[in-house]
Hints:
This protein is mainly alpha-helical. It contains 14 helices and two strands, in the order H-H-H-H-H-H-H-E-H-H-H-H-H-H-E-H. Strands 1-2 form a two-stranded antiparallel ribbon.
Amino acid sequence: MAENGGGDGRRSWCSVPERLQLHAAMLALQFGYAGFHVVSRAALNMGISMLVFPVYRNIIALLLLLPFAYFLEKKERPAINLKFLTQFFLLALVGITANQGFYLLGLDNTSPTFASAIQNSVPAITFLMAALLRIEKVRLDRRDGISKVLGTALCVAGASVITLYKGPTIYSPTKHLNHGLATARANTFGRLGDAAPKNWTLGCIYLIGHCLSWSGWLVLQAPVLKTYPARLSVTSYTCFFGIIQFLIIAAFAERDLQAWSFHSGWELFTILYAGVVASGIAFAVQIWCIDRGGPVFVAVYQPVQTLVVAIMASIALGEEFYLGGIIGAVLIITGLYFVLYGKSEERKFAALEKAAIQSISEHGIDRAPSSHVVRTSLAAPLLPQSTDHV
């Protein structure tokens, strides 16, 4: 897929081939998202409220998105009405409030590495939801359908292993550092707090809820974008209603006014990182990469994030690795690639069938068997749709 973005030989002002730019951008994106997992856990370890953190994060994201949504989508943004507002409210409930709420609850009880690992199951869960809702067709008589079903099963198996089997400790940073290095790490990162999880099984259940919410948001978003084809505006409205929903919950669950103030520069840094890097810059980079390289190219890089998170969390938080988590992560990542392979093969079949229909039409046959054309509203689960390079 990467060749689609840079195969035409175009070069930028800095004379770097676009293909290399795409790979560099995707690596930077994974580092940015990986840092978000670690920074979020550090914020929780420092005592930042799980309600205050997403409110500030989404306020920053909204302020970054609004100017672009307003000026870039003036012509394609339909007039707002009660129906659209209701849809945006429901998208926020699923994609912001439930999604981010479950994520923080799960992260607080597990670790950044396994939170990132479980997120690799989102494409498979999205496919399963779409298939149950008849949005996506499953062809078990072809290799693309078999690959997607097998990938979904592997992701479910991996998430089950992580949840139900923690296993023995495979790697502990403190055991592999001499006294001097351990003291240096403690002096540098000790302020971020202890990375010890609280309730592993409960945390994994929360993370599965996070993935279900994320997948549900992707499925629900597809019909909304058909009638309101302004993605930045939809995202801005979703952020706005997500902020309102979190504030309503906070009015009942977080009455300590001190929780809304910053007590250190580290706390302010975690909020700014989550809002600016993870929600603002990352969104812009991902949109550009999808446009130039295609959605599958972007999705293939997802497991890199898990590896980077593991390294970062081990250094900054002293995270330990458990056998069950490693086995589950391998199963989930393998399942992800099976699903992506199935999506790629599905597009090839669709292109061949479309070419056959056009050929029949050119020979004077008016009615082509269009019922056999594969149609799906989910060009690539987990990622925004793109018709380019497909």
